[in-house]
Specification:
The chain is α/β, with parallel strands linked by helices. The chain has 21 helices and 14 strands.
Length: 480
C-alpha cells in the first residue's frame, strides 16, 4: 500500500481555481465520513497560509478556548496572557482581521456540530459573512459529514447559510482507476477483488495489507472480534439516521440481490408499502450509500421503474457477507463468512466489474484503444453509460453516443465467454433493445471477461464492430 496522497485531480483543480481568485470564498465541502474530505483539503492547502480548526463535541467556551490555542500554534501569533476569545463575535472579528489584506484558507471541520453545541455561531457567521467577511480574501471551507445537518444549515432554502456559499464540493468514494494507484500490485484480478470488497473509500482500502490474500484481509479487518471495520457500516448509519433497523433491513435486501431491486421488491419483503419506503431510500441516496438506477435510455428518474443498488462496495460486502453471518462471527466462526464469500464471490465481483467497465468507457470516450485481441479501436464519444433491461433481458453495458451505441456482456467467472452467449447478445438481446427503445443507430458490441473467450466466439466477434476487454487489457490501456 502506498501511503502518499491518491490523486483527486478534478477536485484539486477546482480548489486551485478558488485559491487563484482575489475574493472571499465560502465553500461547502461535504460527504460521508471516512471518504477523504479532510485529507483532500490538507493536501490542497500545503504551502498556503492555512488555519485548520476541528469542531468537536464540546461547549461554546471549550471550543473558543481550543480555537484560541490552535490559532496561536498554527499562525504563530501571540495573545495577551490567558486570553481566550470571549464569544463568537470576537472569533469572527479575528478572521476578518487576518483575511482583510491577504489570502488565507480557513477550514472548519465538522462545522455542523456548531448547530448543536453553539447554534448562535452559525447565525453569527451569516451576519459576519454578509457584513465584513465577504469583503476579505478569506477562503472559508465548511466541512461536514452529517449529510442531513449540512443540508439543513447550508444547502436547503431555509438554512441560515443558504445563498452565502460561493461553491460546493461533494466528495465521493474513488473510482477503480484512482483506487488502483494506491497499490503496487501487478495482479489486476487481485486489485479488482480488493476493490470489490473494500471499495473506493480511502479509510477502508488504505488498511489493506497487499502482501496478504484478500481472505486474510477480510478476517483481520472485518470478521475478527476486534477488527477495525467489524461494525463500521452500522456505526456510519447510527451517526446519521433514526429507525436504524429499517435502514439495515433495506440494505440487507438490496445487498443480496444480483442486479438491484425495485421499491416493490423491498416493500414486499419487509411487508411495507412503497410510500413508507420512499423517505428511507431518498436518505440513503443522499448519503451515497444507495444509488437509484434507471435504464440508461429512460429519461425520468421515477421510483417505480428504477432499481436500487448499494453504491459503496464495502457496505455492500458487509451487508451481504458479514451482517448476514453475524451469529457465526459472534462465536468466532470465520469459516461461515469465508464459505459464503467463496460460493458467491464471482457473482459479487461481477457486478463491480460491470461498474469498472462503465468507468473505463467514460474515461476512454472518443479515444483510440487497443483491445484484448490487439485491434486498434476508436471508442465513440459517449454521453451516457449504464445498464439496460426489459423483463428477463439483461444488458450489462449500454453506452450511448451520437451516432452509435455500445451493447455489452460482462462476465467475472472461471470459464470463457461462449459463442452462444455472444449470439444471444447480438441477436435476441439486440432485438428486444431495438423493439423497446426504437433507437436505430450503429451498434458496437463489447465483451468484458475475466478468463477470455472461446475461439469460435472470438471469430464471430472479429467479423462485427466489437471490443474485447480483459483485466490485463484494462491495465495496459490505463498505463499501468
Amino acid at each position: 500500500m502506498k501511503t502518499s496522497f491518491i490523486d483527486r485531480e478534478a477536485e484539486l483543480e477546482y480548489l486551485e481555481k478558488i485559491w487563484r481568485t482575489n475574493k472571499a470564498e465560502l465553500i461547502i465541502v461535504w460527504g460521508r465520513r471516512r471518504v477523504g474530505k479532510t485529507r483532500l483539503l490538507l493536501e490542497y492547502s500545503k504551502n498556503k497560509k492555512t488555519l485548520y480548526l476541528y469542531v468537536f463535541h464540546a461547549s461554546k467556551l471549550s471550543l473558543l478556548s481550543f480555537f484560541t490555542k490552535e490559532i496561536k500554534r498554527q499562525l504563530n501569533v501571540s495573545f495577551p496572557p490567558g486570553y481566550v476569545f470571549p464569544d463568537w463575535d470576537a472569533f469572527y472579528q479575528y478572521l476578518y482581521e487576518i483575511a482583510r489584506d491577504e489570502k488565507i484558507i480557513v477550514i472548519l471541520d465538522e462545522f455542523q456540530r456548531l448547530a448543536d453545541s453553539s447554534p448562535e455561531a452559525i447565525e453569527l457567521l451569516q451576519y459576519w459573512w454578509d457584513t465584513l467577511l465577504q469583503k476579505t480574501q478569506i477562503k472559508l471551507f465548511l466541512v461536514g459529514s452529517s449529510i442531513g445537518m449540512v443540508e439543513k444549515i447550508a444547502i436547503s432554502g431555509s438554512g441560515p447559510l443558504f445563498g452565502r456559499k460561493t461553491g460546493s464540493l461533494k466528495i465521493k468514494p474513488m473510482g477503480f482507476f484512482d483506487f488502483m494507484k494506491a497499490f503496487s500490485i501487478d495482479d489486476i484480478g487481485k486489485l479488482i477483488e480488493i476493490f470489490s470488497v473494500f471499495g473506493g473509500t480511502p479509510h477502508y482500502f488504505t488498511m489493506v495489507d497487499a502482501d496478504k490474500s484478500v481472505e486474510e484481509n477480510i478476517i483481520e479487518l472485518v470478521a475478527a472480534p476486534y477488527a477495525p471495520l467489524r461494525d463500521e457500516p452500522e456505526q456510519l448509519l447510527r451517526t446519521e439516521l433514526r429507525s436504524l433497523s429499517i435502514y439495515m433491513n433495506i440494505l440487507e435486501k438490496i445487498a443480496m440481490s444480483k442486479g438491484g431491486v425495485t421499491v416493490g421488491d423491498i416493500a414486499s419483503s419487509l411487508n411495507k408499502s412503497r410510500s413508507e419506503l420512499y423517505p428511507y431510500l431518498i436518505q440513503l441516496e443522499k448519503m451515497d450509500i444507495v444509488k437509484r438506477e434507471k435504464r440508461i435510455t429512460d429519461t425520468l428518474r421515477e421510483f417505480r421503474g428504477a432499481r436500487f443498488r448499494i453504491a459503496d462496495n464495502f457496505i455492500r460486502f458487509w451487508f451481504r457477507f458479514i451482517y448476514s453471518n453475524y451469529p457465526d462471527l459472534e462465536t468466532g466462526n470465520y469459516k461461515a463468512v469465508l464459505d459464503h464469500y467463496r460460493r458467491e464471490k464471482n457473482d459479487f465481483i461481477s457486478q463491480v466489474f460491470e461498474d469498472i467497465i462503465h468507468e473505463y468507457l467514460i474515461k476512454n470516450s472518443g479515444k483510440n484503444i487497443v483491445d484484448a485481441l490487439g485491434r486498434r479501436i476508436t471508442i465513440p464519444k459517449i454521453y451516457g453509460v449504464g445498464r439496460w433491461w426489459w423483463k428477463d433481458t439483461e444488458i450489462d453495458v449500454c453506452a450511448l453516443a451520437k451516432n452509435a451505441i455500445i451493447l455489452g456482456e460482462v462476465k467475472w467467472r472461471n470459464k470463457p465467454i461462449t459463442k452462444n452467449e455472444v449470439l444471444s447478445l447480438i441477436t435476441q438481446k439486440t432485438e428486444v433493445f431495438r423493439k423497446k427503445t426504437s433507437i436505430d443507430k450503429e451498434i458496437m458490441y463489447l465483451i468484458a471477461t475475466k478468463t477470455g473467450i472461446e475461439e469460435s466466439a472470438k471469430k464471430l466477434l472479429e467479423e462485427i464492430p466489437s471490443i474485447i476487454i480483459t483485466p490485463e487489457q484494462l491495465c495496459k490501456t490505463m498505463g499501468r
